[in-house]
Automatic annotation (TrEMBL):
Source domain of life: Bacteria
Metallo-beta-lactamase domain residues: 63-284
Alphabetized Pfam families for the sequence: Lactamase_B_2
PANTHER family, sorted: UPF0173 METAL-DEPENDENT HYDROLASE MJ1163, UPF0173 METAL-DEPENDENT HYDROLASE MJ1163-RELATED
InterPro entries for this protein: Metallo-B-lactamas, RibonucZ/Hydroxyglut_hydro, UPF0173_UPF0282_UlaG_hydrolase
Name assigned to this protein: MBL fold metallo-hydrolase
Origin species: Acinetobacter chinensis
Lineage of the organism: Bacteria, Pseudomonadati, Pseudomonadota, Gammaproteobacteria, Moraxellales
Length: 338
């Protein structure tokens, strides 16, 4: 065989292997139906009827950690990410909110009753749509200086912007909300900006990497005797939650499977074991490069980002050992908060 032929074969094999690896990495890391026993609602066909409006406190999950709390009177939104740009858009082009989509969300979910949007941190998959929400609604936007600079990029009025004051309770109707300083998921190669800030108004479209983390926060929500904690990221500040007990915990599990066994154990001990919730609802596990309307049900992250089946199973096992109940919300239907 001559050298040229050998090189051609080697190169072809290399290209073929690369394509095979890439195809594998972009596959969903399992299917949520594997966890049917924990899904709410269990039957996708009942989803449209599930949770019609009532004066009970409900929550709708829109993927990542965008959660809409509603007591029939007022609404609170944790994080604001509805426009879900595709992976190729995110990697190769600037991202921006879709005003028409936000208009539809406002109509479909009656967001005129929205009192506030509270942001866990300023990465685009948590905060991309806050400027557009603030443009279309007279809603208050609560977040770090970086988060407020995302809103300022769309000239949102300063009286709509509320700078987070850690550990100070804010009141919105019957909701009392306290921001707790927190820790982001450990950095990755494309997500290595922890502690960096957005120091000027950020106009869209902008590269996803311009949405700097700007510090992370958890939100403790108290509503008529019920206590809820929303932790968007897979990170903790040691003993930060020591003296808090909650009924429902929304717990970020992105990249949990990629951490060491010690990290996983410590994370779950410092959250589920410490807060002693009755119900644990995982968040930040869905493939957020899939656009709205959300797939029914949401799909797991591809292998390139996490092994979601493993992260989910780790969370369920730990939760059940603590005699709590794990509930997986897979689409934006109203779930009655326990
Ligand atoms: Zn983040």
């Amino acid at each position: 065989m001559n050298l040229k032929k050998t090189m051609t074969i080697t190169l072809s094999l290399l290209v073929f292997s690369l394509i095979a690896i890439l195809t594998f990495l972009l596959q969903p890391s399992g299917h949520v139906q594997q966890f049917k026993a924990w899904m709410y609602p269990p039957d996708i066909k009942t989803a449209s009827r599930a949770g019609s409006s009532s004066d009970q406190l409900t929550v709708r999950f829109f993927g990542v950690s965008t959660l809409l709390f509603d007591d029939g009177k007022d609404q609170l939104l944790i994080d604001g990410f509805f426009t879900r740009p595709s992976l190729s858009q995110t990697l190769f082009r600037p991202v921006q909110s879709d005003p028409e989509l936000i208009q539809h969300m406002i109509k479909d979910y009656d967001l005129k009753r929205l009192s506030a949007v509270l942001i866990s941190h300023s990465h685009y998959d948590h905060a991309l749509d806050i400027a557009e929400l603030g443009t279309q609604l007279p809603v208050r936007i609560v977040g770090s200086e970086s988060t407020l600079n995302i809103a300022r990029g769309a000239q949102i009025a300063e009286n709509q912007l509320v700078l987070i004051q850690p550990l100070h309770a804010m009141q919105f109707g019957d909701f009392h909300v306290t921001a707790l300083p927190s820790q982001h998921t450990p950095p990755t190669a494309v997500n290595n900006d922890l502690g960096e800030v957005i120091s000027h108004p950020l106009q869209q479209p902008a590269r996803f990497s311009a949405f700097k983390e700007g510090h992370s926060f958890d939100y403790l929500i108290e509503h008529k005797g019920k206590k809820i904690l929303v932790k968007a990221s897979t990170g903790i500040m040691p003993d930060q939650l020591k003296h808090i007990k909650v009924d429902t915990l929304f717990l970020g599990i992105a990249q949990l499977s990629r951490q060491s066994p010690d990290y996983q154990q410590h994370y779950l001990e410092q959250t589920i074991a410490m807060l002693k919730p009755k119900v644990v609802i995982p968040v930040h596990w869905d493939n957020f490069w899939e656009a709205l309307p959300l797939k029914q049900p949401l799909e797991f992250l591809p292998y390139v980002a996490d092994n979601t089946s493993k992260s989910m199973q780790t969370l369920i096992d730990f939760t059940e050992k603590q005699h709590a109940k794990a509930v997986i919300l897979t689409q934006p239907v109203a779930y009655p908060v326990q």
